[in-house]
UniProtKB/TrEMBL annotation:
Enzyme Commission number: 3.1.3.11
Catalytic activity as recorded in UniProt: beta-D-fructose 1,6-bisphosphate + H2O = beta-D-fructose 6-phosphate + phosphate
Cited Pfam families: FBPase, FBPase_C
Record InterPro entries: FBPase_C_dom (IPR044015), FBPase_class-1 (IPR000146), FBPase_N (IPR033391), FBPtase (IPR028343), Fructose_bisphosphatase_AS (IPR020548)
Gene Ontology BP, a term: gluconeogenesis
Gene Ontology MF terms: fructose 1,6-bisphosphate 1-phosphatase activity; metal ion binding
Family that this chain belongs to: Belongs to the FBPase class 1 family.
Residue span(s) of domain Fructose-1-6-bisphosphatase class I N-terminal: 11-199
Protein name: Fructose-1,6-bisphosphatase, cytosolic
GO CC annotations on file: cytosol
Cross-referenced NCBIfam families: PRK09293.1-1, PRK09293.1-3
Known cofactor(s): Mg(2+)
Annotated keywords: Carbohydrate metabolism, Cytoplasm, Hydrolase, Magnesium, Metal-binding
Amino acid sequence: HAAEAQRTDLMTITRHVLNEQGRHPESRGDFTILLSHIVLGCKFVASAVNKAGLAKLIGLAGETNVQGEEQKKLDVLSNEVFVKALVSSGRTCVLVSEENEEAIFVDPALRGKYCVCFDPLDGSSNIDCGVSIGTIFGIYMIKDKDNVTLGDVLQPGTNMLAAGYCMYGSSCTLVLSTGNGVNGFTLDPSLGEFILTHPNIKVPKKGKIYSVNEGNAKNWDGPTAKYVEKCKFPQDGSSPKSLRYIGSMVADIHRTLLYGGIFLYPADQKSPNGKLRVLYEVFPMSFLMEQAGGQAFTGKQRALELAPTKLHERSPIFLGSYDDVEEIKALYASEA
Ligand code: AHM
Ligand code: MG
């Protein structure tokens, strides 16, 4: 009977969010409308990413330079779709995209109370070889609707209302938190709907995987180097950890959430602030990891407590299973 109930009683992402927002009846409709526009963007990108391989085929059949151009187009196209979907939702006010140097202030006639920071297509260097890529987003509320400023998006991550990512992989999965745990939804292509498939995701307390670009090891600082050494040559009798690194943040974080472990993009001598961007990479992923019971640390502080001063600011980041992040925190504390 249970299986039958599952097949006929579909928990779509919209239904799920409406249920969750039941606690805040005043914002129920607005947030749901905003989310449905984000979901539209994700569906568009999912379909475009699927077709990217076919564009390659045409390229191989004779057209020169199609590969490079196509990849660029997909980035730009995805960004345009998200910007237009968000603006037309009538629920946004300020938008920050990885693809735009400046913040986008929505026309007053179309303004709503939410600010969205997003990376429309993260890991795009992976498109050509068919590796998973994703969209990442974080949502804030404006402080004062009569005086909208950059300060509305330069807020600490602790003020975030919701965050999520959509992974375009072997299936298309949207992982979302509205501050009440983390849930995963998988796109059913025949319905065109995201269906709840991973309710209440909790990251294992301790993991067996570390995930880092070890090619940068030469330039790492002491605590990062020591941590990775411990992963490979543990001194406490435990087994060494496995290394998994896709080089696509959404895919690496998705695996970390489901299987546990730690993802590191540390500072190094060449990039003293690491690589990943605070507003649309570090914050949303840190929010999700904390909501799943894990931790996110910058090497100095809890990642969500950063107070960004620039739109495209970067930060080192260590995030994942609670116990694994505790270990790296201890190494940084003993260094200080
Ligand atoms: P991008 O925004 O230019 O795509 O870069 C972000 C990506 C992340 O998805 C990934 O975690 C990281 O860059 C990998 O960087 P690296 O190639 O230095 O290991
Ligand atoms: Mg990116």
